[in-house]
């Protein structure tokens, strides 16, 4: 699980009901019903437990079915290739991809890729 800095949102894999299909989603961390607010692969469930979220060499977030390396979901391409890509779950519930290069201005809009 990935948790936002203020522990407002959580991201991870989940299943619905008794189905074995899995999805990557974001939900309110403190909600006992785990109300999902975003699902990456809502139309393409992962049929086993092999899902992996990673950042490819072009700086794109990809959700892979690890058993076959098939891409289940991917983010759009950023404006440039990152030097040091990092995915961050914000307290707004947004998952962002940014370039975590060595510059002290964390709010620099040039750091955000997706």
Automatic annotation (TrEMBL):
Residues 1-110 form the Bulb-type lectin domain. It comes from the Eukaryota. Keywords: Disulfide bond, Glycoprotein, Signal. This is Bulb-type lectin domain-containing protein.
């Amino acid at each position: 699980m990935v948790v936002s800095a203020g522990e407002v949102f959580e991201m991870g894999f989940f299943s619905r009901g008794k189905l074995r299909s899995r999805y990557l989603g974001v939900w309110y961390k403190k909600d006992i019903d785990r109300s999902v607010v975003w699902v990456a692969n809502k139309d393409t469930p992962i049929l086993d437990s092999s899902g992996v979220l990673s950042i490819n060499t072009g700086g794109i977030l990809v959700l892979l079915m690890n058993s076959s390396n098939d891409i289940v979901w991917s983010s759009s391409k950023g404006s440039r290739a990152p030097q040091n890509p990092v995915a961050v779950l914000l307290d707004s519930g947004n998952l962002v991809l940014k370039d975590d290069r060595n510059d002290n201005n964390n709010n620099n809009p040039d750091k955000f890729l997706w």
